[in-house]
Amino acid sequence: MLDSIFNILPDLNKAFFETLYMVAISLGVSLIVGLPLGIILFITDKGLLFENALIKQTAGILVNLIRSVPFIILLVALLPLTQLITGTTIGPTAASVSLSVAAIPFFARLVETSLREIDKGVIEAAVAVGATPWMIIREVLLPEAKPGIVQAITVTAISLLGYSAMAGIVGGGGIGDFAIRFGYYRYDNTIMITTVVLLIVIVQLMQVIGDGVAKAVNKR
């Protein structure tokens, strides 16, 4: 068994870094796009800073539309877009396109939920002292929601890790692709167990780090 594990270490190491690469790119894109989208979903709601039913409903429908599609179907459906953006439909870079599209609305909803947990009295106090809407977003909403946003990033990263494993089905690379090619197709339980243990360790590390950062930034 140990010999089998040692033999697969080079391939496992490559798959590990491919997975980190996919998660890092898609998480970065989800932060850049999903954070503003989550803020828009919150501040355009009824009775808030930029109340706008049209924008709220349009953004909400778009987010729900993408979230309602199972990732494996979304992965296949976005192959033409992936080809257009990356020039290929296989490999970790190509898989990052679908992962990013799936992560953006997921993270946006988590951000919106974090913002809704803020005491409305804090927002009302900021309005009462004459703070502009942009000042409220920058100086009140984001600092108050920081622990929730950090937890949202953690949950999104862990979800992306699972999605990246599914990306291996269409040649996306990473640990999922490794487990399918070397473990499932070859009926090698050692490889399957090794990859499962590795994924468990990665998830635990992500959660511990995320919880630690969330506690560190929580000033309440």
Automatic annotation (TrEMBL):
Ranges of residues in domain ABC transmembrane type-1: 16-210
Cell compartments where the protein resides: Cell membrane
Top-rank taxon: Bacteria
Protein name: Methionine ABC transporter permease
Membrane disposition: Multi-pass membrane protein
Organism: Fictibacillus phosphorivorans
GO BP annotation list: D-methionine transmembrane transport
Family: Belongs to the binding-protein-dependent transport system permease family. CysTW subfamily.
Keyword Transmembrane: yes
Main subcellular localisation: membrane
One annotated Gene Ontology cellular component of this protein: plasma membrane
Alphabetic keyword roster: Cell membrane, Membrane, Transmembrane, Transmembrane helix, Transport
Transmembrane parts of this sequence: 20-44, 65-84, 90-108, 149-170, 191-210
